[in-house]
Design brief:
single chain; mainly alpha; Serine Threonine Protein Phosphatase 5, Tetratricopeptide repeat; 72% helix; binds adenosine-5'-diphosphate; binds magnesium ion
Length: 210
């Protein structure tokens, strides 16, 4: 795991966001202001342009470079939140093993940082409804000695189930909360983008790690 792997994961995330951009745009038009996918794609394009720096760095520093780029380009509420995820992971990466238990700890640290930044947990109809259950399941699988392939197979399923569960939730955080009861019946755009990126990164890694 190094900057090259991180860059390949960014490419996988970018591809899935591009492929699903109309759907994500619509979700944020329904319960937000419609900019979520464009915020993310702007960040992704800046990351692709910074390929050289990202690929040349070791794992932790490459995440730090990605986080800084995300903060300066993504904007919206989600920019600082995805920044927190990536910089929280980067800060924790030093000293962790590049294995299932190590990555479970690193991912959980990133999700904790999002929680501190956004001051929310599960049940508010946000990206946290995907991120927290995925981090929790990741830690459980690590504690049970699961293989990398088993983890990469299961986490996208957890993410999908939790993303779908945001449909019936009442939004109590972010722009969607302004809609009150009318926020119900629509999937949260940040939950969908997070789920898509988790699935794409897991699929990429499943094919490329032994
Ligand atoms: P904005 O709402 O400023 O237009 P985006 O459209 O880029 O920003 O992002 C919206 C997404 O951000 C939401 O769908 C939700 O998942 C996420 N979000 C908003 N507020 C929070 C929060 N406090 N904690 C976690 N995620 C949040
Ligand atoms: Mg928005």
């Amino acid at each position: 795991m190094n900057g090259k792997t991180v860059m390949a994961c960014i490419e996988a995330a970018h591809a899935t966001l591009k492929q699903n951009m109309d759907e994500i745009a619509l979700l944020d038009q329904q319960i937000g202001d419609g900019d979520h996918i464009f915020n993310l794609l702007r960040g992704m394009e800046a990351l692709l342009a910074a390929r050289g720096d990202i690929e040349a760095a070791a794992f932790g520093p490459s995440l730090d470079a990605v986080a800084a780029k995300v903060l300066s380009t993504v904007g919206g509420s989600s920019g600082p939140l995805f920044y927190s995820l990536l910089s929280g992971m980067s800060k924790c990466a030093k000293g962790q093993g590049m294995d299932v238990p190590g990555f479970a700890v690193i991912f959980a640290a990133g999700v904790d940082a999002v929680g501190q930044r956004g001051k929310t947990g599960v049940g508010s109809k946000t990206m946290m409804d995907v991120l927290i259950p995925v981090a929790n399941r990741f830690r459980e699988l690590a504690a049970a000695g699961a293989s990398a392939q088993a983890v990469l197979d299961e986490l996208p399923r957890v993410a999908q189930t939790q993303m779908l569960a945001t449909r019936d939730m009442l939004a109590t955080k972010g722009r969607a909360s302004f809609l009150g009861e009318r926020s119900r019946g629509h999937i949260d755009p940040g939950a969908r983008s997070s789920e898509l990126m988790i699935a794409a990164v897991c699929a990429h890694l499943a094919q490329h790690i032994k």
